[in-house]
Design goal:
Length: 299
């Protein structure tokens, strides 16, 4: 983890855990940093207004809802299938380039809403994840990496062969952010796969569910990690619940190998045994990377 701290006055981006805004990041400023007695951060939004409609909105948010401002190139030409962030409706929305148009225009598809719209390149930035105190992909490597190598790597990431053990995500309401174990039965054309879930069964409970998924909703099965002696408070984990893996944060260590886990997406806190948890990792640029843990707080 880097030494980055969310100090008073620093510019940040904030996510809002509300229906229709999940995955969107809004620019803002830290008004009051977290402390050992108050883990929340007071922020002021740059683009969102309070109920009175005349002053910037201020509110306290959890650490998992805040991150530094991502790096951004001054000039960039985007390619088909590039994952990008688009600035509209007061925030940065994650999407995928589906068409490269003339005049620095791009068509962008948004998975959560299944909408597609055209945007100017000036309103785009390459999508990056804040992972383990670093931005991935990093700005420096990207500037020198040959285009051919990037395309090859992207194809390599999407090459899930028949019989591969994978995890699959869903855009359906109530299942956002969950990953379900499956097996690739067939590769269908470009970047589409027929999969069979390992734990989800049909309504008659006789067969496992089969469906077609695209490359945006599939990833390799995470490597089997050694047994963790003890999870720590504020550590990001995946919890096995309702046949899938859901990302959460250890909110309390209970003892007897039991933990309370908080889920930001549903604002729930549930109890799990250690064998129902695994350290949370992100599949980024063809590698499994351990997600950032909570910040080292200080007054």
């Amino acid at each position: 983890m880097s030494n980055f701290q969310f100090k008073k006055g620093i510019k940040v981006e904030i996510s809002i855990d509300e229906e229709g805004f999940r995955g969107v990041w809004f620019p803002g400023t830290v008004i009051k940093p977290p402390s050992k007695t108050d883990l929340k951060v007071m922020v002021e939004y740059d683009t969102l207004l309070a109920e009175n409609g005349s002053t910037p909105l201020r509110e306290k948010v959890d650490l998992v809802q805040i991150r530094p401002i991502p790096p951004r190139e001054s000039k960039r030409e985007y390619k088909l299938d590039d994952e990008v962030d688009v600035f509209f409706n007061d925030g940065w929305w994650e999407g995928v380039i589906t068409h490269v148009l003339e005049g620095n225009q791009y068509s962008v598809y948004f998975r959560p809403t299944r909408d597609q719209n055209d945007f100017n390149g000036l309103d785009l930035r390459l999508h990056r994840e804040w992972v383990h105190g670093k931005w991935l992909p990093p700005l420096e490597e990207e500037a020198v990496q040959p285009i051919e190598e990037m395309i090859h790597k992207e194809k390599e990431e999407k090459n899930f062969s028949k019989g591969s053990l994978v995890e699959v995500s869903s855009d359906e309401d109530g299942f956002e952010g969950a990953w379900f174990t499956a097996t690739v039965l067939e590769v269908i054309g470009k970047d589409k796969f027929l999969i069979e879930y390992r734990d989800l069964k049909t309504e008659d409970d006789k067969e496992f569910v089969r469906e077609e998924v695209d490359a945006l909703h599939i990833r390799p099965h995470p490597p089997k990690a050694g047994k963790v002696d003890k999870f720590k408070q504020f550590e990001e984990v995946d919890a096995l619940y309702n046949d899938g893996w859901w990302v959460g944060c250890i909110s309390k260590v209970l003892g007897d190998s039991k933990y309370l886990v908080y889920f930001k997406s549903t604002d729930e806190e549930l109890e799990f045994k250690d064998d129902e948890l695994r350290l949370h990792h992100e599949w980024i640029s063809g590698e499994w990377v351990m997600a950032s843990k909570a910040l080292d707080l200080s007054d």
